[in-house]
Amino acid sequence: MINIIGITKEDKIEKNLSIQNVNFSNYKWFWVDFNQPTEEEITHLDKTFHFHPLAIEDCIHRLQRPKLDYYEDHTFFVTHIVREDERKLVKEELNFFVGENYIVTFHLLPALEVHHVWEKLSTQTKGGKWDPSYVFHQLLDNVVDNYFPVIYKIEDQLDNIEDNPGNESMNKLMDELFSIRHLLLQFGHTVNPMRDLLYRMLSSRHLKGITKRSAYFSDIYDHLLKLSDMVSSNRDVTADIRDNYLSLNAYQTNNVMKVLTIMTSIFAPLTFIAGIYGMNFEYMPELGWKYGYVFATGLMAIIGVSMFLWIKSKGWFR
């Protein structure tokens, strides 16, 4: 589907224009949205707008890294929309062709960010402050703002792992933790390139519309810096939780080994005594002794108690 809004030279907004009949020269500026276009509709990128073949190729072959490319009469931008779906991060491209008097958006899946800005512009009676660079800012702002619910949800999941209100087993918590670390890694692969893209845009001398609204685009850049820091800090939190789990696991293992060592230390001499008198040699004087059994069991009891008291005095039971 191809949607078109045109702002006339009298600053009036015209909607529901058809790409087959529209005369773009009659408009001060216009916005064309390629929303889940068919193969035939995609050909208009070349036939109608004459965009660079490499930019058209980048639109069709997803997912490209967020970037910008300068061409003779337009600039091409690749950005990423992010959604979380059943503990998976779903990324989709939102591409822009921005010229002096137009903006063209291209996306192969529905984009709520585009729909929101489209409806916002459609309710206006006059163009007013709206122009291609302002539409571009509004779209980018919506894209980046929708990153925050994703990172906030991840932070809530980390809080649940730390608090463990459901008293889940450590193995299950570790599975969730490594799943979150993977989400953060994926999210960072979007946030950091988007941050670099905004930095390039603000540093560029070729983008006059962005330079004119640099304060607004700087605000988006600040949001991306914050998001990048949040991704990094949350990855540090997952590493701390993982290390604490490994330390706790090692501590518990050491306690088990300590108990087993104490039991072995106590029963080793008792086993030695029992082993000697269990060999059934014919000539063993103690076997014929009337008090031999009492003596042997008494000796083992004394040794066992002595070993226990000695180990306790060394602080092994603390």
Automatic annotation (TrEMBL):
CDD domains: TmCorA-like_u2. SUPFAM superfamilies: CorA soluble domain-like, Magnesium transport protein CorA, transmembrane region. Belongs to the CorA metal ion transporter (MIT) (TC 1.A.35) family. One of its GO terms (cellular component) is plasma membrane. The chain crosses the membrane at residues 259-279, 291-311. Its main location: membrane. One of its GO terms (molecular function) is magnesium ion binding. It is found in: Cell membrane; Membrane. It is a multi-pass membrane protein. NCBIfam families: corA (TIGR00383). Mediates influx of magnesium ions. It holds the Pfam family CorA. This is Magnesium transport protein CorA.
